[in-house]
Amino acid sequence: MRRYLRNATPEVYFIFSALIGALIAAGLSFTQFGFGFWTMWGILLSIDVVTYIAMKAGWIRTPRQRSGTDP
Questions:
Q1: Residue 16: is its pLDDT beyond 80?
Q2: How many CB atoms sit inside 10 A of residue 27's CB?
Q3: 3-state SS of the chain: helix, strand, coil percent to 5?
């Protein structure tokens, strides 16, 4: 999995982090935090969208650029 994500494009990275966010939101929605699944997943997804936009704009290096496989 690490090798796959090391060469991931910003789109793949976004999808993977959105799925992880859904799992985190599902797990934490059963605790006493007071947020529902949709609220928590919306917050996590908005962070993923901002990260994706920053990667596409070049403000954050993509996983490909960090591993040296993308110019």
A1: yes
A2: 11
A3: 70, 0, 30
Task: Report d(CA 20, CA 32) in Å as an integer.
Answer: 20
In eight-state DSSP terms, residue 23 is H
Amino acid at 33: F
What's the CA gap between 37 and 28, in Å, rounded? 8
Q: Does the model's pTM come out above 0.85?
A: no
d(CA 26, CA 18): 12
**pLDDT tens column, 39-68:** 888 988 999 999 889 888 888 877 666 656
Count of CB atoms within 10 A of residue 14's CB? 19
- Tell me the two tokens of residue 35: 């947020």
> From CA 43, how far away is CA 11, in angstroms rounded?
19
